[in-house]
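Sequence in, structure out.
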Amino acid sequence: MKQSQTLIPTMREVPADADVKSHQLLLKAGFIRQNASGIYSYLPLGKKVLRKVEDIVREEMDNAGAAELLMPALQQAELWQESGRWYTYGPELMRLSDRHERKFVLGATHEEVITSLIRDEVKSYKRLPLTLYQIQTKFRDEQRPRFGLLRGREFVMKDAYSFHTSHESLGEVYDRLFTAYSNIFRRCGLNFRAVIADSGAMGGKDTHEFMVLSDIGEDTIAYSNSSDYAANIEMAPVVTAYEKSGEAEGEVEKVSTPDAKTISSVAELLNVSAEQCLKSLLFKVDGENVLVLVRGDHEVNDIKLKNLFQADTVELAPHEEVSEVLGCTIGSLGPVNVKEGVKVIADHAVKAITNGVCGANEEGYHFINVNAEKDYRVDQYADLRFIQEGDVSPDGEGTIQFAKGIEVGHIFKLGTRYSEAMNAVYLDENGRTQPMIMGCYGIGVSRTMAAVAEQFNDENGFVWPKALSPFDVHLVPINIKDENQRTLAEEIYSALRESRYDVLMDDRAERPGVKFTDSDLIGLPVRVTIGKKAAEGIVEVKVRKTGEMIEVQKSELVSTLHEIFQTI
């Protein structure tokens, strides 16, 4: 491709609203342009990278035994009403009506469509298992689109769905696609971790996210410093064993704590550690009042709370309801003398607290010397807190450390969540009707492109890995008006293309400094510069990743490039 025949509108200044490196460089190097908040056009360079990510995804999905199809982006509201998600998905779901006032959604995901398709086409166990996938644009009305392609309202996604007659079959495909995903992100050159995750609005259980390690990541990964264990922070179980001290249990005493409404202020006023305090929070769990207790230096993990109760909704009780149920405002809550209608559950660490401090359910007062079972009831102990750095790794190997991550893939074991709701059934070998067992597997294709852009750059621009680079070689004649340079450039351009290299030739009548700056910004693996030694058939080869430069005779250029591409 000749640069004068394509659209690569590089920019000299970074746009003010681009606050992460990938967004800045994708705009500056002319890969994308914003049309509206969270909505982008992929320009020729960006489209080539996107297609290369798609090609890797297709190869690995096909190798894993999945078949590609394409479903409509415009989906009937009735399907979402069947699954129940029309009412629960939230404002991110883009809803619209046609001229006849029939309701539709723009596809945020395709569980409903694929389930309706398979229930109509597959009737017998003999047709299962079956795995299908598509690569398609998705739509979500993000409240706060940010970070360019990393969180947009329109994005490219690969979504796959598998259908089974048994959980064993689902497990086999799940493991196969886990491997395929690992291969995909490894081939893209990404530094990533597969982490245990929460299924969220998708439903189901047994799920992993594939997280690219990055300081701008919106998710926190808890990982072992001695093994390959990794999980989203909300899913990492705490395995710390707590032991009670040998201290004798004292008598409960109510003390005045004016203006002390936080653990730190109470601990300071009473000259105790945060570990000695009880943190009490009133939650609404599917509408039921639940008082949750954790140690003062710990934080309640609402995902663990939701999973413990297998609840649909978990939220902190509003201030007025706290006052009505417990008789005081937030800041003085505690478990002593809580009425029977309120369930009290506590984290395992609470059981080990001797002579603790808690709110007295009276404004400006706390109890000291409180002990579980003797002074307050606990209906159930469970793992209810967020894991912390330094905690024992859940697999027993090493301790936990934290890192930030960008989610690029997510796989789920959905079970019968959608097949039962939408009557997707088959006849088993005994002629009995059974619900299909499902799996769901997603990759953010455009997000993967952005994650690669986030990891592969330097102070001058992109440093694309060869598997995803929009072109292999940037051919740069310094002065296209010089006959020797122009002739040699055309000769090399043809020779490299014949040798199956994808070449971008800068045939613009621009100053050398502009050409070199743009070349570094675009970041192709190798630049071949044709300059003053063109008449001698000598060119300069520069490796973008290392900065290494060598002079090469034109007759040796193809073999030199072959050696370089074997090492980068």
